Amino acid sequence: MKHHDMAHGGSRRDRRIAEHVHDPYKTRLKLPEPTVCPECGAAFEGGRWHWPAYPPTEANSQLCQACHRIRDKYPAGWVTLTGDFVKKHKQEITQLARHNEQLENAEHPLHRIMAIEDQDDGLVITTTDIHLPRRIGEALKHAYYGELEFHYEEETYRLRVHWRRNGEA
Description:
With 169 residues, the protein is an alpha+beta fold. The protein has two domains: 35-70, no CATH class; 75-164. Helices cover 27% and strands 25% of the residues. The protein has four helices and nine strands, in the order E-E-E-E-H-E-H-H-E-E-H-E-E. The chain has helices spanning 65-72, 84-88, 90-107, 131-144, and strands at 35-36, 43-45, 48-50, 60-61, 77-82, 113-119, 122-127, 147-153, 158-164. The strands form two sheets. The chain has a five-stranded mixed beta sheet. A four-stranded mixed beta sheet has the order 3-2-1-4, with no helix packed on it. Helix 3 (90-107) packs across helix 4.
């Protein structure tokens, strides 16, 4: 068996490994601590964003990823809700989505609903992250049954959730 070494004229075939594209809004460098978002008041301390009981003194100021997405109108998640059931129960469904946002947001300040828009065939909920749409979709499936589908776009760090239910009850 012959050993080829780069230093001795051997050849090497590089294999390009596709690098995963992560959230383009995620801060690339570690933020100085403490840092506070001037829009929402979330604080970055201990390596993560949280809701502070009191605003940190002498904090740096930087827009958090969620506020940045909201400002740019660039959601990471969509929950599309269709079917006769959605048309007849928009208020209850909206309340369920908002309740799940509150539960998620209490622990993860960057997980927020950006908008809930009426469509001819139902509702579209946009979010600042990819975890909240999954939570909302699963809560809808648990509460009202129906059909639930997920489509994760890894290269753009986006999640599309589609829930549908026909019927009245």
